[in-house]
Design brief:
By secondary structure, the chain is α/β, with parallel strands linked by helices. The chain has ten helices and ten strands. Helix 7 packs antiparallel against helix 10.
Length: 304
């Protein structure tokens, strides 16, 4: 029986490095290339990878942001970060976020290959150990398996992992349009578990991990105000800083999600709310219509 090749996602803006990695890995592994955070997020949502290699600097968000997203969407998937130059601050941050390795340019390709093989060897050993443990506790495992199956229905999985490629592309089109209309710094759609379903713009001085965690919290005060105003579908909140403001619109149906906008305080709030609510309505309507008219694609199924 032939063992299927392991899949590696390579993310970066350095075309020369991407070509080198492709030449190095394509003979032994199935490689997929993404040139931006947005493209990489799409691939991660719709398929599983046994390893992700990403540059820290990307055209939109960063490799650190991608690392934090992988931890929520595909826990256990090893991520290697490649920096333009050695940075102790970035190395520490990468390890804290769960990176399996931190490298910097110029890359020693043979050393990189050894590190990749080491990661896959560790995965094999872990799988063997897990199989051995399961066989020794078969009855307990069967009970847990039944319970796990009952608790992982499609309605209970994170909304982000239920999106099809068409839905994901439509969401990012809406977010990019909103970004350009109001000249925002960043626009993102986050599900109730804190997973990023789409993004446009750059964060720069902001922390994506803190933002997604904050938006995964149950906003009971906002819900109470919404009930008072008889607003069942959309709920809104606004936080203003010295130079930037954060606008949040919660979408209730068909999935619980938060639309977050970060823009300058010089932008008129009325214009932001107008375009933001329109975007939230467009996204909610599209998801509702596509959910009712199409058979959902499993996030593990590769399309295109």
């Amino acid at each position: 029986m032939t063992q299927s090749k392991k899949r590696i996602l390579i993310v970066g803006r350095d075309r020369d490095l991407m070509t080198q990695l492709e030449d190095l890995l394509s003979s032994d592994y199935l490689t997929v290339q993404s040139l931006s955070f947005e493209d990489a997020l799409s691939e991660i949502l719709l398929g599983e990878f046994q390893l992700i290699i990403t540059e820290t600097k990307l055209p939109d968000l960063s490799g650190m942001d991608l690392l934090s997203v992988v931890g929520g969407l595909r826990p256990g998937t090893p991520v290697m970060l490649i920096d333009d130059q050695l940075s102790a601050k970035n190395a520490i941050a990468a390890m804290r976020l769960g990176a399996c390795d931190y490298l910097h340019k110029p890359i020693n390709l043979q050393l990189l290959l050894m590190q990749i093989e080491r990661q896959f060897d560790l995965q094999r050993r872990t799988q063997v150990a897990t199989a051995s443990l399961q066989s020794s506790t078969a009855s307990q495992t069967e009970t847990l398996s039944i319970s796990k199956t009952a608790n992982t229905s499609s309605t209970e999985r994170p909304a982000t992992l239920l999106l099809t490629r068409q839905q994901f592309q439509h969401i990012n089109m809406e977010l990019t349009t909103l970004l350009n209309h109001i000249r925002a710094h960043f626009v993102g759609l986050i599900d109730a578990e804190g997973n990023l379903a789409g993004a446009a713009g750059t964060l720069e001085d902001y922390d994506l991990v803190l933002l997604t965690r904050a938006l995964s919290i149950d906003h009971t005060a906002t819900s109470s105000l919404a009930r008072m105003l008889d607003e069942g579908q959309f709920q809104a909140a606004y936080l203003e800083g010295v130079s930037s403001g954060v606008y949040i619109i919660e979408i209730r149906e068909p999935y619980m999600m938060s639309l977050a906008i970060i823009c300058s305080t010089e932008v008129k709030p009325g214009m932001v709310w107008l375009y933001a609510k329109r975007t939230a309505e467009n996204i909610a309507n599209f998801l509702a219509n596509s959910k009712s008219s199409e058979t959902p694609i499993s996030p593990l199924q590769i399309t295109g």
